């Protein structure tokens, strides 16, 4: 089984909502932090949000603050990204990532497409 498997992407109208899920398995279940990144066509991959395993401390990119919420269910080894008030510029492939380090990510999911129509 892949260490990280994302789901929940799709097509939504501007102003709508989606919830992404990332299921961890194997070594990624003991990660110290998990995060979400995204990459739009022709652009570099960018950080979206992260959450620590110990106390659940969260960090967000300025572009999604107040609209996106990252959370985790340790019993299910799953991290979620609730995305509200979606905008066309949120269109991208969203990747889940996990790490055992303080800086950088060791594991990546295969990505899930999010498309927001205007």
Describe this structure in words.
With about 120 residues, the chain is mainly β. It has no helices and eleven strands. It has strands at about 5, 10-15, 20-25, 35-40, 45-50, 60, 70-75, 80-85, 90-100, 105-110, 110-115. The strands form two sheets. Strands 2, 4, 5, 6, 9, 10 and 11 form a seven-stranded mixed beta sheet that branches. A four-stranded antiparallel beta sheet has the order 1-3-8-7, with no helix packed on it. Strand 5 and strand 6 (about 60) form a beta hairpin. The model has no long low-confidence stretch (mean pLDDT about 95).
What is this structure's SSE topology?
Blueprint: E1 4-7, E2 10-13, E3 18-24, E4 33-39, E5 46-52, E6 58-60, E7 68-73, E8 78-83, E9 92-99, E10 107-108, E11 112-117
Parallel strand pairs: 2-11
Antiparallel strand pairs: 1-3, 3-8, 4-5, 4-9, 5-6, 7-8, 9-10, 9-11
Distance between the termini: 37 Å
SSE class? mainly beta
Identify the overall geometry.
Answer: globular
Mean pLDDT: 95
Main sheet? 7 strands, mixed
What sequence of helices (H) and strands (E) makes up the elements? EEEEEEEEEEE
What is the C-alpha radius of gyration, as a whole number of Å?
Answer: 13 Å
Number of helices: 0
In short:
The chain is built from no helices and 11 strands.
Which key terms come to mind for this protein?
11 strands; 118 residues; four-stranded antiparallel β-sheet; single chain; mainly beta
């Amino acid at each position: 089984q892949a260490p990280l498997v994302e789901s929940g992407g799709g097509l939504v109208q501007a102003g709508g909502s989606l919830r992404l899920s990332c299921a961890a398995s194997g070594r990624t279940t003991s990660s110290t932090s998990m995060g979400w990144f995204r990459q739009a066509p022709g652009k570099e991959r960018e950080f979206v949000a992260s959450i620590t395993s110990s106390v659940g401390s969260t960090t967000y990119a300025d572009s999604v603050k107040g609209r996106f919420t990252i959370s985790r269910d340790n019993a299910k080894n799953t991290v979620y990204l609730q995305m509200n008030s979606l905008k066309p510029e949120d269109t991208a492939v969203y990747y889940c990532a996990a790490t055992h380090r303080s800086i950088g990510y060791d594991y990546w999911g295969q990505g899930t497409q999010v498309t927001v129509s205007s």
